[in-house]
Amino acid sequence: MSDARSAVGWEVVLDRESCTLCEVCARDCPTGALRIERTAETVALVFAPSRCDGCPGGTSCQAICPEGAIRLTVTGGGEEVELLRSPLLPCSSCGKGFAPAHKLEALARKGRLHHDLVRDLCPICRRNELVVTFIEEERAPGEKAEYRSTTTILRRAGKLREEPG
């Protein structure tokens, strides 16, 4: 007697307006039926129905999607399909593509982007900008800004001994 599940195929129906390309579904897919494909310019969510088992007894993509953008349905099977592709936005400082345009647009629509730095800068340039802003805000007027490493700060605080030279 054969397993009835073997004749069943699965299909993912994606609400493209709700999806933020957060990648949770692809990251947690136990069979690899959902995956992220990246290029230098784009990021895409791809579904391979032949690999999907509907997560029997487990947590499906439908259940873990934080946006409720995925619906898993029974179908006759089919070929691999690209569910969503988005160009990567370039960092306004270094020019490297860092976030899918669709993701930032969806987050902005939902009121989840609270700072322009998130929209314009990659994580590394954003961190650097925040550090520079912090240093500039903390220094006294006319005082030259000084970069201090963690080692320098610990030595000045007497918490790190000088290495014998």
Low-pLDDT stretches are 1-6
CATH topology of one domain: Alpha-Beta Plaits
Rg, nearest Å: 24 Å
Q: Judging from the principal axes of the Cα atoms, what is the shape?
A: elongated
The SS-based structural class is alpha+beta
Number of strands: 6
CATH class of one domain: Alpha Beta
Mean pLDDT: 80
Strand order of the largest sheet: 2-3-5-6
CATH architecture of one domain: 2-Layer Sandwich
Query: What summary fits the major beta sheet?
Result: 4 strands, antiparallel
Helix content: 25-40%
The N- and C-terminal alpha carbons lie at a distance of 78 Å
Number of helices: 6
What string gives the helices and strands in order? Answer: EHEEHEEEHHHH
How much β-strand is present in the residues? Answer: 15-25%
Description:
This protein has a domain at 4-88: Alpha-Beta Plaits. It contains 6 helices and 6 strands. The radius of gyration is 24 Å and the shape is elongated. It is α+β, with helices and mostly antiparallel strands and 165 residues long.
Q: Can you tag this structure with a few keywords?
A:
single chain; 165 residues; alpha+beta; Alpha-Beta Plaits; two-stranded antiparallel ribbon; 6 helices; 6 strands; 28% helix; 22% strand; elongated
Could you outline the blueprint of secondary structure elements for this entry?
Layout: E1 9-14, H1 24-28, E2 34-38, E3 42-47, H2 61-64, E4 70-75, E5 81-90, E6 97-100, H3 101-109, H4 116-120, H5 123-138, H6 150-156
Antiparallel strand pairs: 1-4, 2-3, 3-5, 5-6
